[in-house]
Amino acid sequence: xxxxxxxxxxxxxxxxxxxxxxxxxxxxxxxxxxxxxxxxxxxxxxxxxxxxxxxxxxxxxxxxxxxxxxxxxxxxxxxxxxxxxxxxxxxxxxxxxxxxxxxxxxxxxxxxxxxxxxxxxxxxxxxxxxxxxxxxxxxxxxxxxxxxxxxxxxxxxxxxxxxxxxxxxxxxxxxxxxxxxxxxxxxxxxxxxxxxxxxxxxxxxxxxxxxxxxxxxxxxxxxxxxxxxxxxxxxxxxxxxxxxxxxxxxxxxxxxxxxxxxxxxxxxxxxxxxxxxxxxxxxxxxxxxxxxxxxxxxxxxxxxxxxxxxxxxxxxxxxxxxxxxxxxxxxxxxxxxxxxxxxxxxxxxxxxxxxxxxxxxxxxxxxxxxxxxxxxxxxxxxxxxxxxxxxxxxxxxxxxxxxxxxxxxxxxxxxxxxxxxxxxxxxxxxxxxxxxxxxxxxxxxxxxxxxxxxxxxxxxxxxxxxxxxxxxxxxxxxxxxxxxxxxxxxxxxxxxxxxxxxxxxxxxxxxxxxxxxxxxxxxxxxxxxxxxxxxxxxxxxxxxxxxxxxxx
Length: 552
Description:
By secondary structure, the protein is an all-beta fold. 2% of the residues lie in helices and 35% in strands. The strands form 7 sheets. It has a 15-stranded parallel beta sheet that branches. Strands 4-7-10-16-18-20-22-24-26 form a 9-stranded parallel beta sheet, with no helix packed on it.
């Protein structure tokens, strides 16, 4: 995104500069603005290119039979509502459709009034509960539904006015479609929609398997990050960062799935990474999702946060299947099975090919006996996460495992599932491959300079004269490494030979190392050139990024 530091330099380092908009002008959005039969499109700018900042003034429903399309780059702001009665929130009713498809370069951001789009550091991760959140409801099965009447097969969603017929979710269609949510960041939410009922960053009630949930971040929410109430949806590439309650919470017979989930907690607050419930009392329709390739990082092995233990809790008839999980850095036990109806001997509850090490406490005897049985292929080793510090502006979080980590062996080579969507089979445990930090660019974690381990080089057009010598400066925000080798590729052409004899390495205060490549400019024809720089680091990893120059 545009908030990242620009690190392409022509005869020196060019710093990014942004014009602030203060105060912002908001277009108020009310519930009456979206009705049955409507097809509404929200663009990020008006016809003249000026940004449009929309503010949810109350619970805004996408009614049944309505569709809301949110285009890449949109910012949607939420308020706490008139007289604090109702927090602003976006609620997709049963039969409504939400098409919120951002991109990596231009994600869709939901945040609070006052969060300046051009200032990544104005509101930090400690600010929570400043608006509501996003709620999606569908017609897929749930546990213990109403038995008869108009709302048979349904439940009322928490936090929504119980006298509103649009508050109901659930049904009989496991393949129900509620829309597409992709490359979306939801920040600083969790205020109560109604009295004493806080809302999750993203709530999914009875969402069917045809719905697409992919690349979604829940950042600094005062309630849960993600919660599933029944349904069959599969959600992939989820980020839960610094939320006050649980990060991944499922209940009421969720039988969907998930892959590539990342959870990071603050030292002083945040409950479990996974709080997993099965159903309401008396029902035999259990939660049995399949979850693979997750990285759950706790508050720290010495943290005083007593709520951040265990890392994963199964209870209340919870089933489920975990594969290729990393659970580390929790102050207590990484896992507890507190389920009465589904003990480890039941095939509906399994944890396999996962790693539980680097925690401050141990599992109880019953759990450890199952988890570390030979046939589960689980490990108690330290997963060797590269960096787990998570301070805003310090670029100290890299959740990938180091080269040689035990996560690169013993992983599941197939993920059994009854879900209609197949699972990937990557050659590692956890959410990230060694060279695949998919949380770059589109997340608040990146914008706030919390992530490390990559080149801070953003696309930037700069003009040079044909044949002119120039410097290409790359800023590597990773400490404790050297660069034995590297390359420069221009429009697919290996231009490493254009480098002058010396590579100049300069420390940049509070950022990292600057690698200045003096280029002769010879051989670069006129026109825009895509430059890809690759650095091979001494710790065995490779980082790459790109920029654009315009040769006149």
